[in-house]
């Protein structure tokens, strides 16, 4: 497939890019600074996320949004996703796959309490979680594009092991046999590419965790 990855030079984006390349996909890295992409197997498009147009992405089968807002500008999670949904509106392709957050996952079967609503949720992470949650709510209400939203587990581990396996859930936080809610960036990237190829969660959020 032809896959465009926004913020391909970031931690999650880099791992997703490497996984896509290893599977033989045609990858375009969409980054603000082209110099940060040194892999010769990748086409580079230097573009700020808010300046991306449909013409930039229309040839892709999959568009991965791996953007992570900087500290103090967490509202960009809302404005950037709104921009992407606007330019994709009315088009069947590319399918948008969003690297989401865990804060909007539920911790109870009735789906009334989100991770970010729990008493011990760190205050430092609340601006990111709440803005990502609001952006996700807007995405769920959008019926003009084809999308998938992939939430990691509570602990998203940049240097975690690549085990090659993971468990899948939908809207509730996962925990492994040891009681830990975690997923490595490497295993998350595997799950995202599996979804890109299989398309099992169209217009749906799902989550992945370690076994």
Mean pLDDT: 96
The fraction of residues assigned to DSSP E strands is 15-25%
**Helical coverage, percent range:** 25-40%
Beta strand count: 10
**CATH second-level architecture:** 3-Layer(aba) Sandwich
Order of helices and strands: EHEEHEHEHEEEEHE
Short structural summary:
By secondary structure, the protein is an alpha/beta fold. The chain has helices at residues 11-22, 54-57, 76-88, 126-140, 185-198, and strands at 2-6, 26-31, 43-46, 62-65, 95-99, 147-151, 155-157, 167-169, 182-184, 204-209. The longest helix has 15 residues, at 126-140.
Report on the structure:
The protein is α/β, with parallel strands linked by helices. It has one domain (2-209): Rossmann fold, CATH 3.40.50.720. 27% of the residues lie in helices and 21% in strands. It has five helices and ten strands, in the order E-H-E-E-H-E-H-E-H-E-E-E-E-H-E. Helix 1 (11-22) crosses helix 5 and helix 3 (76-88) packs parallel to helix 4 (126-140). The relative contact order is 0.16. The mean pLDDT is 96.
Per-chain topology:
Elements: E1 2-6, H1 11-22, E2 26-31, E3 43-46, H2 54-57, E4 62-65, H3 76-88, E5 95-99, H4 126-140, E6 147-151, E7 155-157, E8 167-169, E9 182-184, H5 185-198, E10 204-209
Features:
211 residues; alpha/beta; Rossmann fold; 8-stranded mixed sheet; two-stranded parallel sheet; 5 helices; 21% strand; globular
